[in-house]
Amino acid sequence: MRATIKDVAKACGISITTVSLVLNQRECRVSEPTRKRIFDVAKKLDYRPNKLAVGLVTRRTRTIGLIVPDISNFHFAELCKVIERECQAKGYIVLLGGYGDSDDQAFEYFNAFIDKGIEGLVFAKPFGLKLSEVDRRCFELAASAGLPLVTFDKGPAGPTRRTVEFDFARGGYLATKHLVELGHRKIGCITGPSGLRSAIDRLKGYEKALREASLPYDDGLVHEGGFDYESGLEALPCLLGAGATAVFASNDMMALGVYKAAREYGLSIPRDISLVGFDDLFIDELLEVPLTSVVHPSSELGLEGTRRLFAMIEGSSDTSSAPKLQPVLKVRASTARFDPGVAPSARRRR
Amino acid sequence: MRATIKDVAKACGISITTVSLVLNQRECRVSEPTRKRIFDVAKKLDYRPNKLAVGLVTRRTRTIGLIVPDISNFHFAELCKVIERECQAKGYIVLLGGYGDSDDQAFEYFNAFIDKGIEGLVFAKPFGLKLSEVDRRCFELAASAGLPLVTFDKGPAGPTRRTVEFDFARGGYLATKHLVELGHRKIGCITGPSGLRSAIDRLKGYEKALREASLPYDDGLVHEGGFDYESGLEALPCLLGAGATAVFASNDMMALGVYKAAREYGLSIPRDISLVGFDDLFIDELLEVPLTSVVHPSSELGLEGTRRLFAMIEGSSDTSSAPKLQPVLKVRASTARFDPGVAPSARRRR
DNA sequence: CTGTTAGCGCCTTCAA
DNA sequence: TTGAAGGCGCTAACAG
What is the rounded CA–CA span in Å between residue B277 and residue B227? Predict the structure, then answer.
């Protein structure tokens, strides 16, 4: 069994209190010799305080919770990494929970983590336009527990609630504008699930860029996907059917699907169609035709999230919402100037 | 503040003991009405036991630790995901720690997690051929704490220690044998860091396949890499210089580097050189030329790991080492029959 | 300078 | 069928 504070006290022939005092660097009202003895004995016994006991009495656990939908997803994996690293630096430990596609599970984790005495929580959920009932209960729970909470979506900042936002709309705008500037006039868009705010925002950016260029919004040029590879695969033929010469895919997985579909149709990127993705996955620049993509800075988001979380934990009352993190477009080889010379037939061989 | 058991007891006009008894489903020696009242009140007060307190007295925290080098790495991300999911199903919670390249940090986490009363620990570290001093201390620590520990490397199984191994050697063997069977006689190998057992094993498999085919082992055909993209990039020219017509890359990131290098040299895969990777990343089959690769089943490893961990936690004393998980070769388009007709000059244009 | 006392929230004998 | 008392390991007033 691990040595307890009692063991140390006994071995020193001294009271528990004094040991606690010394080991916690409290006001050094203890004589040097005693103090030294305590340290020595503690080391020899390899004494380490039981954090459960400490937490019970101090109400501080130096633990935070991190709840994500899918840990193995690039973005969330990166987020976990950064957050974990920051916590480590702060001497905090992280409880990890993945809720998959069950909002209820997320709520479970809220409860379980609170029961374990976390001091803060990062809830990395992509919310819908309107919050679900469970989402709302999650927030209430955190609020009523006075638990500092950080999310990555627009939402009311409160005394214990902060958000770190990313400007998805501007991302969609930049991507589309880039295509417009290359002379494309029929630009397809593969969106994410229409329930998600982040997906809707990207679409809004797309629309805005079209408007600015006085290009008409064409329903046929917009295809709803599910952020997965297959969506890109099946979207391309539809968009080609509507006459698209360029495509903005709302994320890179779907863009990868477009690559594949293009190959199957004997089309070449970017000669026959230009393609812009979203996320800037590491793979983008390793592709045969490196993918032009909007950078979704997972690390920065995680960093800023932890920063704001610890600000709350440490008692800051700065409720001001930080400015949205801004996207950047990484132009690579998958986009090219629209060439009217390429006959539609050539563009749509087969 | 959250309601405590005392609040429930008071609200019921009954003793704490009884409440505890009932809520913990202990021997139902309590009258139905009282019992019901307790449940009702508990629900109304939204009572949830403080896990710190429970853990302190019961010595059970329903928490396990998970220590990985890099959370954002595919393999470990997948591992985390599976393990977290399994724990969730078992009603356990996971503490996550990433140690980057600092073994000392891993040791820190061992201590910190033990202090928090974890009931088991998964330590997903790729070990060197001989354990480092810190590694050894980690194991001792766990052993002396009687903490169930699972690792993914060969090692002594003890009363509280299990390993789940993957047959890297066979993976290297399968990859190389495949190339041999395609008629290649000059097969390059890009290894991982020579300190890692898993890297060495892959190399051993490569050697074995050569031996079986009575092909000579040529130092010039073996290039040590660091499991990263750049390694593949710089390895290819060396291997070509040694006359390689095929390459076995010890992981897919390096294989991706080979793709890139090949493109730069104007070489086509698989016409000019065949390529086999290792890991079977999701990206492999999405590539323009899908990559033949050895499957490294992160999920299965994680699954088996958790299974064995919980077996220990639940008191099984089955110390038998499970058979190594076996690799499978996924043959795709990056490997082709060696064609002596292709002149070396064409093979090494430029 | 140091020890006593009182809990933190909960479980668990033991007694009523 | 229920309750009182003790203790898990630790901290924190408050005394000496």
Answer: 11
